[in-house]
Design brief:
The chain has helices at 9-21, 32-42, 58-66, 71-74, 87-95, 108-116; strands at 2-5, 26-29, 46-49, 78-82, 100-103. By secondary structure, the protein is of the alpha/beta class. The chain has one domain (2-116): Rossmann fold (3-Layer(aba) Sandwich). The mean pLDDT is 97.
């Protein structure tokens, strides 16, 4: 199961459509707080996390999850997906524990390839 944490309803629906069409089970969260809560409850196999969100942003949510005392949660792979595309954004995201950083817009085939590589 893949957890998609994306505040934009349009982008969230597009990613969910891509993933479900490829056969993945998907759950969604609209912000970082909800994403962390769902991850703690559902233990997804992968998390796709937007960086720019109200409240708990993607960097903070990623750090919360990857530094969790719950080892299973801390090992959950997180791919940050954001329009923030500066090298410093990517470096900071990886420092928070993300395993990859994709810059929007992400082509469906690229997203699916990155997921399959995990």
């Amino acid at each position: 199961m893949i957890l998609v944490v994306e505040p934009s309803p349009v982008e969230r629906a597009q990613v969910v459509s891509t993933l479900t069409s490829a056969g993945y089970s998907v759950v969604v969260a609209a912000d970082g707080e909800e994403g962390v809560a769902i991850a703690k409850r559902e233990y997804p196999d992968l998390i796709l996390m937007e960086v720019v969100m109200p409240g708990l942003n993607g960097y903070q949510a990623t750090r919360t999850l990857t530094r969790s005392d719950d080892e299973r949660l801390a090992r959950t792979p997180i791919i940050l997906v954001s329009a923030k595309g500066q090298d410093t954004d990517k470096v900071w995201g990886l420092r928070q524990g993300a395993i990859d950083y994709l810059v929007k817009p992400v082509a469906d085939d690229e997203l699916l390839t990155r997921i399959a590589d995990i």
